[in-house]
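Example record

The entry below shows one chain as it appears in the dataset: sequence first, then structure tokens.
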Amino acid sequence: MNHFLVVTNKHKDPTFTCTNRIRGYLERHGKQCHIRTGETAETDIPPDTECVIVLGGDGTLLRAARSAADVGVPLIGVNLGTLGYLAEVNSDNLEEALGQLIKDDFKKEKRMMLFGEVVWGKRKDSGQQNSSCALNDIAITRKGSLQIIVFHIYVNGQLLYTCHADGILVATPTGSTGYNLSAGGPIVEPHAELILLTPVCPHSMNARTIVLSAEDAVVIEIGENKKGERQDVEACFDGSVKIAMHTGDKMEIKKAEKVTEMLKLSQDSFVEVLHKKMDVE
């Protein structure tokens, strides 16, 4: 590889110490390096980019992943955050990792993404964005005052069940270690192709995560509450792109046609990585 883009989180690297360390190493080895800050949902990726190095935490990587998937460029994360499940590299072994990249000593992993599109209810034209992709998850959660939301969940055109909860998470295997894990969902091997449905704070003793095939089509409809009042919710894609929804609107979710390519440098298996992240003894 010869052309790199470094996407840095300036809140995690405020003096650009680590950013300049990466750029300096690459340029000393005759490579080209561009710098961007990962503050917005979209990243400007130069056309000659062969690899995106994301410097920060999982949130920064997720924002960059959407743009990288659009142009088919692989990415790798350098963790400056806390847990960093998605990051392959730590700052203490940075030069070693960069050396592997410039020698093409890596494997490419394809990660499944989700595509979600809102179908408006009585609104003919909302005038706002109604679709996006997600590497981790699509979260549909209550907006505004504390209230239980009614969700009608359909799979392949059939009603699966009606859920009363603060929200519903639709996650990929990659996203299983994110919000899904915090909401009580299972951890899934990231190379699997599955769709996870996890309720957020369900108003039920029996609510559990439901695991579906990647080929299944999920529709989540926002229902009325028991008083017949309109319910306002917000759909959030990987914590960045947000779409307002309310009673009568539906979110159609399926496996995306595009994928995120991530670079793997170590020989550690998913179980070994999980062991280290969870600090199991």
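Notes for this example: DSSP finds five helices and 18 strands in the chain. Residues 119 and 125 are 10 Å apart (CA to CA).
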